[in-house]
Sequence to fold (151 residues):
Amino acid sequence: MRRTAVTAVLGALVVPGLAACSPPEPALPAAIACTTQYRPDHASDAGQRQDRLTVLRAVGVPAAPEALELPDFHLEVTYTGEAPEGRTVRLVVTTEDGDPLVSTLYQLDAPEDLAEHFGTQGFTGLHYVRNGPAELQIFCGPADGEEEEPS
Fold:
């Protein structure tokens, strides 16, 4: 009986100590990169343009968006980590006049939420957005990784 009590006391002391020695949770990447391909006419490659927008993670404050201006689209991306409202990535696409086309929010519970869930097309997957005949393709992933261009 005495041995059981000693074992229980030692176990109570050792287990919390092991938890304190656990490695810290990995941090979110410092930046994400959104790759875009713009086509004035979705049915043609003529005039197509490819861009990459890098967005730094804001910590503890509302994130200011990074923007990309295109002839038929305006893209804004924000990346917030460790703010009171949580960890998020927000993609907003509007027309050149500011009329909304798409708004998508990704809530990040853990760093693996930014993993390549869609093959080479980041954690967002490939989005197609149209405005008349024009098309914008977008996907985002961690900035330190290599992403393929949209096709």
